[in-house]
Each structure stands twice: as C-alpha cells, then as structure tokens.
Amino acid sequence: MIEFRESLKMATSMLLANKLRSSLTMLGIVIGNASVVAMLGIGQGAQELATSQLEDLGPNVLFVLPGSQRNRRASFNLPKTLVLSDAEAIAGQVPSVAGVAPEINRRLLVSHRNLNTNATIVGTTPEYPAIRNFSVAQGRFLNILDLERHRRVAVLGSEIADRLYQTQTPLGQNIRINNITFEVIGVMETKGSSLGSNQDEFIFIPLDTMVAQLVGRTSPYGIELSWINVKAKDGDSVGAATFQMENLLRLRHNIKNGEDDFGVSSAKQMLDIVNTITGGLTILLAAIAGISLIVGGIGVMNIMLVSVTERTQEIGLRKALGAGEQDILSQFLIEAVIVSASGGVIGVVLGMAIVAIVGSLSPLITVISPAAVVVSLTISGSIGLFFGVVPARQAAKLDPIVALRNA
C-alpha cells in the first residue's frame, strides 16, 4: 500500500511537472468521452421526442394509407387509391371503429393583407380533432353545416395565426388560400411536430370546400383522399379494426390475390419503426464516437512511449537507487490511468454541456444517461490501463547502466 501511494505521488508530480504534454495526451480522451456522452444523449433525445409525439396520437389511432407497400417505400407521390366513399364505408360498416376523419392535404400559399407564407391545408371533417387529439384554443372547429354548405371557413394552427395576424385577433378576419378568401372561425392550441410535419402550420377547411375550391375532382370514382384517420373503440380493438378495414377495402377495391393498393398502420406500429430506426442510429453514433476513444488511447500510448525515451535518466537513476521493475511499471501505468480518467471526467462534463445546449436550442427531449456516463468513464480508464502497458513495460525493462550512460 505504501509502495502504491509512493508510485501515485511520483506519477502525479511528473504529470504536473509536464502540464502541456499531459494536457495534449488527455485531449484525445476528452474528445472521445464528450462525443460518446453527447451522441448517446442526442440519440436518446431524438428517440424520446419521436416516442412522445406518436404516443400523443393515442394507442387506438389508425391510418389508412393509399398505394401498395412497394409504392409507399419507393415514392412520396403516392397513387390516390382511397376515395371518400371508402371512408364512409369504414365509418358505417366496421363495428370496432369509433370515428373516421378523411383527409386531403396540400402545401399552398396563404396570405393576409401584405403577409404571405406557405402552410399545409387540410381538408377534413368535424371528427378530426377527436381522432387526432387536437384542441381548439379560440373560436370553434368545423361543423357539419360548414361541410354541407361548402362554406369558406378556416381554422388556423397556432403558428400560422401568430405569423399572419401577430398581435391581432384572427377570429372573424379573412385569410386568402390560393387567392380564395376564407373566414377564420378558430385557432388551434399549440401541437408541435409529428411524423415529420409541423402541426401548428396546418389550416383546416371543410373537405367538400377543398375539393370544390382548391383541388378539384381528379378521379371518376369519387373524391380522392390523402389518407383516412381512424379511431378504434379502444386499444384492444385495434387488431380487430385493422382486420375488418382490410377485408372491407379489399372487397371494395376488388382485390382477390394481388397486392393491396392501400395499407393500414397504427400509431404503435409507427412507434416501433421509429424506435428501431432511432435506436440503430444511436448505436451507430455511439460506435463512431467510441472510435475516437480508441484513437485517444493510441495517443496516450504514443506520448507515454516518447515520455519513456525522454526520461531514461530518471528511470536509470531510480533503478540504481533500488527501485524494482514493478515500481517503474506501477508509476507509468498510474500516469496513463490518471491521464485517461481525468480526460474522461472532463470529457463527460463537456458532453453533458453539449447535450444541455442542444436541448435548449432544439425541440429534442435530451437525456443524459447515467449508464452512458459510467460506461464512458470505465472505458476511458480501461483504455489508459490497456494502452499504458506497452510503454510501462518498456520503461520497467530498461537496464539502469545503459539508461544512465545514454542519458
């Protein structure tokens, strides 16, 4: 124990005597640990954000999407294989469904007086807020009379309302969508982003008005839909609702043996896919950051080897005074571990700071994982021990007479 304390004291004094060299040796470890902690924190933050957004949809929300699975993988411009009568059939004939909201969406130019912006125009029905868990902050949402009478009324997302009306009250004022005037009847509560789109940039108008005034009829089979939002009666009914809707649409679309020209996805399925993707990306980022830790360890070994060459006189003198190979080995190993562990602590603090900054400047729900901190510190200390063995053994094997003669 006394010998260890003596080796620790000598190792510390040598590191403090060569502050610049010690700092440069430590730099690679600092960068490696900071990268690991930051990448894992940001990756987990992205996963948490995606999870919170999809869970906000509810466990019993389903989406009926147009196009075959192959089409959906290969292109964003999906064939419009769903029509309004499909949504009406689901609402009327699928017993495990509690609500249906067909949807048409387009990215269009909107303006108020001299202010212009682009927004996602959503043509839908009064059932939409209940199914997609939206709430109205001011005014009201669309009702059945708006739909039946093809009224030019609009409900604005909170960000669009702030951007176009600023300090004014939007209710009762006009907004122009593709140079067609609509009356603002409501403003939605702030919702945030989901599935890659900013829901606060949505503008909701009656589905029939959108078809008659903005997009027109492009199919002889009815009003083409972007997709259909469906709410099952409860979480336990999701499987039954999916099965019943698939059978109904196959019958309506006359699909017997071929590939479906539609798909049914649940919020849970989307969550599983997102978690798989973000989890894989987090592992990839951590692996890339881990490489920098190894590079830092090699840097420790290189500098320690140079240090052995520079300190041959010191080593020879210690051996001449009675220090054994084990004493020299311990001193150099302790130096390597101190450099790596200190660099690990500094790197972890720096990584945590980076995660905190990213969290404050972005919508990511950044997380500092205690496991990542512990693993990072353990690996950095182990790397110092591992890469310190070669120079330490080289120092311990030096012949004291040769060392003193060459000094």
From TrEMBL:
<dbReference type="GO" id="GO:0022857">
    <property type="term" value="F:transmembrane transporter activity"/>
</dbReference>
<dbReference type="Pfam" id="PF12704">
    <property type="entry name" value="MacB_PCD"/>
</dbReference>
<feature type="transmembrane region" description="Helical">
    <location>
        <begin position="283"/>
        <end position="308"/>
    </location>
</feature>
<dbReference type="InterPro" id="IPR050250">
    <property type="entry name" value="Macrolide_Exporter_MacB"/>
</dbReference>
<feature type="domain" description="MacB-like periplasmic core">
    <location>
        <begin position="22"/>
        <end position="247"/>
    </location>
</feature>
<protein>
    <submittedName>
        <fullName>Slr0594 protein</fullName>
    </submittedName>
</protein>
<keyword id="KW-0472">Membrane</keyword>
<dbReference type="InterPro" id="IPR025857">
    <property type="entry name" value="MacB_PCD"/>
</dbReference>
<dbReference type="GO" id="GO:0005886">
    <property type="term" value="C:plasma membrane"/>
</dbReference>
<feature type="domain" description="ABC3 transporter permease C-terminal">
    <location>
        <begin position="287"/>
        <end position="400"/>
    </location>
</feature>
<keyword id="KW-1133">Transmembrane helix</keyword>
<comment type="similarity">
    <text>Belongs to the ABC-4 integral membrane protein family.</text>
</comment>
<feature type="transmembrane region" description="Helical">
    <location>
        <begin position="20"/>
        <end position="42"/>
    </location>
</feature>
<dbReference type="InterPro" id="IPR003838">
    <property type="entry name" value="ABC3_permease_C"/>
</dbReference>
<feature type="transmembrane region" description="Helical">
    <location>
        <begin position="364"/>
        <end position="390"/>
    </location>
</feature>
<keyword id="KW-1003">Cell membrane</keyword>
<keyword id="KW-0812">Transmembrane</keyword>
<dbReference type="Pfam" id="PF02687">
    <property type="entry name" value="FtsX"/>
</dbReference>
<feature type="transmembrane region" description="Helical">
    <location>
        <begin position="329"/>
        <end position="358"/>
    </location>
</feature>
